[in-house]
Amino acid sequence: MNITRETVVNSAVLALLVLVPVVAQLRGDPFTITLATKVAIFALAGVGLNLALGFGGLISFGHAAFFGIGGYVTGILASHAANYEPLFDGAFTVNGTQQMLLIWPIAIVVAGLFAVVIGALSLRTSGVFFIMLTLAFSQMIYYFAVSWPSYGGEDGLSFYTRNQFPELNMFDPLNYFWVCFTLLILAVGLSAMITRSRFGLALGGARQNPQRMASIGIRPFWLSLTIFVISAMMTALAGSLYADLNRFVSPAMLNWHMSGEIMVFVILGGNRRLLGPVAGAGLYILAEHLLGQFSDYWQFFLGLVLLAVVLFAPGGVIGILTRRRGDV
Amino acid sequence: MTLLLIEQILNGLQYGMMLFLMAAGLTLVFGVMGLINLAHGSLYMLGAFVCAAVAGFTGSFWLGLVASLIASAAAGAVIEVAVIRRLYARDHLDQVLATFALILVFSEGCRWVFGSSPLFLTVPAVLSGAVTFPGGLQYPLFRLVIIFVGLAVAGGLFWLIGGTRLGVRIRAGEADRGMIAALGVDISRLYTIVFALGAALAGIAGALVGTLQSVQVGMGEPVLILAFVVIVIGGIGSIKGALIGALLVGMTDTMGRFLLPMGFAQIMDPAAARGVGSALASILIYLLMAVVLVVRPQGLFGART
Amino acid sequence: MKIVKTLFPSLALSLALAGGAIAEPVKVGLITTLSGGGATLGIDTRDGFLLGLKQAGATDVEVIVEDDQQKPDVAVQLADKMIQSDQVDVLTGIVWSNLAMAVVPAAVGQGKFYLSTNAAPSQLAGAGCNPLYFSVSYQNDNLHEAAGAFATDTGYNKVFIMAPNYPAGKDSLAGFKRYFKGDVVDEVYTQVGQTDYAGEIAQIRASGADAVFFFLPGGMGISFMKQYADSGVDLPLVGPAFSFDQNILQAAGKAALGVHNTSNWSKDIDNEANKTFVAEYKAEYGRLPSIYASYGYDTAHLLLSAMKTADVKDKEAFRAALAKADFASVRGKFSFGPNQHPIQDIYVREVVEEDGILTNRIVSTALADRADAYAAECKM
């Protein structure tokens, strides 16, 4: 691999994300570790969205749905296990679980199934219709979660203790950070593999010129649907981790503002950049905390910062640092 | 029961007209400039706040209405020149994000200027109260006025697009941007005018609807999403589509909330039926939108995708 | 993060000289909503709490104030921060039930006191009660129960009831029905954040009811009352105080005039503590206090009263000191029941106009010495 400027910037971003919690641990400041974990989780959601948004050219305004589904699967399994109530008790019995290694695949598969349906229907359209259709589906799930009483409705669902991981104490903030960080790195690696594979190249072709792809016998629909589903699965994993970070899920995870925020992470860092979402999520959380200190109206300034990035730095932060627009 | 049904149909019609006022500006801006403007809801909020503030200060609702029209059109022109203009050539993603950022700026800016508490705005005396129809049906006068204003705006827009020089340019701009510039029309001025017009429509909608609702920060967001649902169902860029879409959404929502809980009560325990019925009612319009788009991906009256 | 320190060394000295006072420093984490649409409630809570400390000349109380943005996940993270990094002794300030449900169990689980300035969901009053959790405001159902009692006393026979379709809304209608002896002609759940009530008003018109009970907090209530006033339906309205609070009453305008609402506090409750509170709040902030401000103010005084006799590090002693509720509440008579929720009178107020400003006046007492429906389920 050539050592490009972007490689240097990427390494620096990752080093920083590791360094902050380690230093915080030494200084006895667990909250900073929690913040770093939040960055890693949001970054993972962003890496997922980036696959659809950046590499697939699918502007999904409904990824909060998958983030929230991942969270709710986690919350529901954990609370059933904690209360010793079976999930399903009929011809056979299905129990809840508090094992992360079981919860993650279930969350991923459930979100994947939703993504197949939502994706297949939404991909019948394109452009602004696609944006709005993904939004519509996530709004349906949001309103359903708000008004369905079984799992807390608007109040959300608390499960009080973090789920378990073999041989590691998940209550230790730094341990939990490592788990989230490792998953983030795996997801980044997977996206790198996907985008460089033949599938990824075909996808890039489909994004830039669908007609040409169709003419050589590749149907963009299946490419797009595949990337949409993989993207949703990654975001769902992030949702599961976020639920465990807070030991709590609520419809707020499904709200369209959440979709907007995940999108902001991607763009702030740099659309189509491998580590764009990591830099974006880091900056967003940092800005939230710094601006919050000096004004009650911090969202006003956050809006101005975002606006400036979109207007004047279309390659995002990583774009600024590497001084070229991202193109794969 | 018949009276109730008629009243609910009127409510659906009126709600649809309310949505149309909001959706008209949105679809106009999209049709001409191809721009997704999430900040449309913020202009709606601005209209309501300015109307409330001016009406509170001067004591005249009508002055407030005029002020809201001017303020929202001016705000529209300013953000078009400062921000929106740079977005026409960008993809939808950048447009969504930049206007999402504008929402944050407008919402917190409004709270900064006007405070956190909701503002007071009420129906002017001449339009307050209910009218009684023959047959005993009572209906609030102000809601009838909103239906009328909606119809007037629809008529005005059809005339503007179909029968004026500006309309010719707008249609030409929709069809071929390069050509209209080559013909010597100042395209950036045209865009500013169209955007300000869209903003003014949002502002008027905010002032009128704010009269019936709570004038508070964030009031534009739920209605923004609904307005998008409307124009997507109707076909983006089509005024006729926005009108039909708005009526469809208004009617579906009102009737769903009215009939679904009653329907479920026939087949299950009434208390549970109310919960399930209203849960389903709240997702009904999104369901409608999904069905329309799956069957007709360009919307009911949409020409292009 | 904004840190407000209230340290008055000279007063600390005088208190120590007066004897009996153990001036242990107490760190308080106040998480509340300071930005976005719900900010008024949080700002009032914070201002009431800080005024309480200031007015008592509080010594050695350090308050850390943070904005939860009305988002439950943010509230949980702030609580983690305050517990882990700031090492607060007491948490307080949350306005919304869904945020409280996310934060309170975790906070008391980690051995911190939580004093509720508003939200008090039923789950935390019954089986989920905890020795470290106190509700200073009420139990969520209380004001709705009082509305039910008021409707019964007034002689309403057929009432139309309405609330948003979320857990607090369902609790509200259940609370109303607990004390209402007549018929409920129809029960309607509206959408959360709904802004147009034409459909519901049509149903009210057709229902043949003789009164309407509604629980629609914040902007929802304003929208409903404005539309109702203009609809030609003139059945009497009854509701809990939230839609008639000082900070939103002006926005509802004359539409609210004459409406009866139930509250455990009102600015015209006749006692010294309340008079001082109302006067000093007006002097300090230039506006009339709201119920949220009154809860914040009472919470500050409750905390100070416990600090006088116990050390916050000695949990058992501090809990006992809090449970005595040995402070002059602005509500007058005030004590804690076995589940550490208030036992208090709940009043009926009427919206009136005073000097061109809409406000409330107490007209009667709906429930005297009311505890709550869940105390029996609490095993502590």
Describe the structure.
The complex is a heterotrimer of chains A (328), B (305) and C (380). Chain A is mostly helical and 328 residues long. Chain A has helices at 5-26, 30-55, 64-82, 100-122, 127-147, 173-196, 198-208, 210-215, 220-246, 256-269, 276-294, 298-312, 316-322, and strands at 88-89, 93-94, 157-158, 248-249. Chain A has a domain at 31-255. Chain A contains 13 helices and four strands. Chain B is mostly helical and 305 residues long. Chain B has one domain (13-123, 139-295): Orthogonal Bundle (ABC transporter involved in vitamin B12 uptake, BtuC). Helices cover 76% and strands 2% of the residues of chain B. The mean pLDDT of chain B is 87. With 380 residues, chain C is an alpha/beta fold. Chain C has two domains: 2-138 and 268-336, Rossmann fold; 142-263 and 346-377, Response regulator (Rossmann fold, 3-Layer(aba) Sandwich). Chain C has helices spanning 9-18, 39-55, 72-84, 97-109, 122-125, 142-154, 167-179, 198-207, 219-229, 246-252, 272-285, 291-309, 315-323; strands at residues 2-6, 26-32, 61-67, 90-92, 113-116, 133-135, 158-164, 183-190, 211-214, 237-240, 260-263, 335-336, 342-354, 357-370. In chain C, strands 7, 8, 9, 10, 11, 12, 13 and 14 form an eight-stranded mixed beta sheet that branches. A six-stranded mixed beta sheet of chain C has the order 1-3-2-4-5-6, sandwiched between helices. The longest helix of chain C has 19 residues, at 291-309.
Could you list some keywords that capture this structure?
heterotrimer, A: mainly alpha, two-stranded antiparallel ribbon, globular, C: 380 residues, alpha/beta, Rossmann fold, 2 domains, six-stranded mixed β-sheet, 13 helices, 14 strands, disordered N terminus, transmembrane transporter activity (chain B), transmembrane (chain B), amino-acid transport (chain B)
Topology:
The complex is a heterotrimer of chains A (328), B (305) and C (380).
Chain A: H1 5-26, H2 30-55, H3 64-82, E1 88-89, E2 93-94, H4 100-122, H5 127-147, E3 157-158, H6 173-196, H7 198-208, H8 210-215, H9 220-246, E4 248-249, H10 256-269, H11 276-294, H12 298-312, H13 316-322
Antiparallel strand pairs in A: 1-2, 3-4
Helix pairs in contact in A: 1-2, 2-6, 2-9, 2-10, 2-11, 3-4, 3-9, 4-9, 6-7, 7-9, 10-11, 10-13, 11-12
Chain B: H1 2-33, H2 40-58, H3 61-82, H4 92-114, E1 130-132, E2 138-140, H5 141-163, H6 165-175, H7 177-182, H8 187-212, H9 220-234, H10 239-267, H11 270-295
Chain C: E1 2-6, H1 9-18, E2 26-32, H2 39-55, E3 61-67, H3 72-84, E4 90-92, H4 97-109, E5 113-116, H5 122-125, E6 133-135, H6 142-154, E7 158-164, H7 167-179, E8 183-190, H8 198-207, E9 211-214, H9 219-229, E10 237-240, H10 246-252, E11 260-263, H11 272-285, H12 291-309, H13 315-323, E12 335-336, E13 342-354, E14 357-370
Parallel strand pairs in C: 2-3, 2-4, 4-5, 5-6, 7-8, 7-9, 9-10, 10-11
Antiparallel strand pairs in C: 1-3, 11-13, 12-13, 13-14
Helix pairs in contact in C: 2-11, 2-12, 3-4, 6-7, 9-10, 12-13
